[in-house]
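pipeline/complex-builder :: batch 7 item 3
reading input block
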Amino acid sequence: MTIASDDPRVAAAAAPPPAPPPGPPVRRRRRLTRNRWGYAYVAPFFVLFACFSLYPFLYTAWISLHEVRLSDIDGAEFVGLGNYTALLQNEFFWNAARNTLTIGVLSTVPQLAMALGLAHLLNYKLRGRTFYRVAMLMPYATSIAAATLVFAQLFGHDYGLINTLLEAVGFDRVDWESGTWTSQFAISVIVTWRWTGYNALIYLAAMQAIPGDLYEAATLDGASRWQQFLHVTIPALKPTILFTIVVSTIGAVQLFGEPLLFSGNGMTSGGVSNQYQTLGLLMYDQGWTNFHLGQAAATAWAMFLIILVVVGGYALLARRRARAER
Amino acid sequence: MATVTFDSATRMYPKADRPAVDNLDLEIGDGEFLVLVGPSGCGKSTSLRMLAGLEEIDAGSIRIGDRDVSDAPPKDRDIAMVFQNYALYPHMTVEQNMGFALKIAGVAKDEIGRRVAEAAKILDLEDYLLRRPKALSGGQRQRVAMGRAIVRNPQVFLMDEPLSNLDAKLRVQTRTQIAALQRRLAVTTVYVTHDQVEAMTMGDRVAVLRDGVLQQCDTPGALYERPANTFVAGFIGSPAMNVVTGPAVDGGVRLAGAVLPVPREKLARAAAGTGRVTVGFRPESLETAPPGEGVPVVVNVVEQLGSDAFLYATLGADDDGDVLHTADVVVRTEPRTAAAVGETVHLRVREDCLHVFDPVTQLRVD
């Protein structure tokens, strides 16, 4: 083969193409019109989001700055941050915040720990694995009302199965509903029962993405099953664990259905001495029992801010750890 | 340091109709570099994993040194393995990856540090000790995987296609580095590959497997010179040996109307049952003969490699009515005098370069 100078490719390479004329600066407007179909396709979601999420969200903020009665929403009276200062001085608020925290810790920590253990077991090749996986998700598919009613019966004082069993093995009956710790423990059991399988499935999915040869390498390195779990599984699951912690925290702050139905009579006070009144219950109590919408809105915003602070704290912690690891 | 012995070791996967590894008998000497080679699905990786303890042994036994390890858990076998995808722990630094086994074994911290530093120096990884695997290139990851094995100072190294994820150039480089490192450390090594070039260049001895059955285990030179059957003959060497079958006639085998001479005793034994004989000749042991002599072939494709040229040619069917299928033949020639496409070339085999096989058993006839 010869390299001829009249080869069109050589000629083209030799003569550099004329530089493109400097075009007009790309304006935002032009980019908008060029991508109009993209915006059109995402529009339905954002329209719905604006109507049903953003607007109520901002309206709640507006209401929280007013004195509003449920019977007369238009007769709102601007009070500035009055509802918030009242909330901070309200002993019920602090009581509810404390209850929410203890129930949250009592339910989230064992729930996630058990979910991790369950997922680890289900990751082994078991006979009837699919059955167990489906069974795990059953509590999640059960309505809160049905589940809570059953659990309220189980924890009943006189005829409850749990007290019957306690008595059978020689312990005293426990008045689950009226004690502070006992009632909060009982509610945590319901929450844990309902959400453990859901989290276990999320962990299981993440575990199945871990390459098998990592475990083989760890086996050859002499790591026991437990050490493999600590040194291979847990590090690989870190992002997933953070995700489940965030989701569970949000759920815990907003806890409402279980404590409402646990009393058995639909009282929003969370027990006679408010021993298991959560922030969600308090908000409902303020708005729909006492008709102080302004205060209820302030409580809702306080819950939102608590979630923001807590989740923001996790994110900061995770980022600092990730940076330390790099 | 230790020998490794496979004694009729067999692995049968549940629901499989034939064993993945069938009665494997293999003796690996102390400090030897043995390569297991074969096409995919031949059982070479399974054999290695049986030795590692990652696969059960259904029959027979495996010994490391004098100790029967058939039922020993992997950690008690005093072996280290390099995986095909390296299997580095993604959240650990290079240092932690290499020291993990020692940490699990409860070795003192400064001792771990010393041994990791030593291995890192050998493998040129000193600048990367604090990096995580995802911040390393493919070649560096491969070296970390090697380092993880070296640090443990095991009796046996197991390597499962450790070069298959590297690009061609790096593979050739790393190939020689691994071989040199193994000679230097003098640790018994079992190395699995599907690449016969890797097998030939690295191994002290090479074991060729097919369908779970050991075909031949010998030095690279012996495998090339005296393949035990047609499978080994076709598998070892590149391009592959030409293997053709034809009717036995007086003085040789008839191919495309011409007679290729075969030594009398070999011919008699190979053709005893069927009257036919299978012969093999490598592309590099063919030479052109003047017309009238040699076996005629028609050239289809010419591959110019610069140093050599390869002719891909067709051996015509026999015109005597005793028609055999046509066969493809590869010929290595001088690049300057290579024949043109469509030309007919007459070939003969250099003296002592003809391999004779039994057409039924496919075994070598000597």
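note: Chain B touches chain A through 24 residues (CB under 8 Å).
queue -> next item
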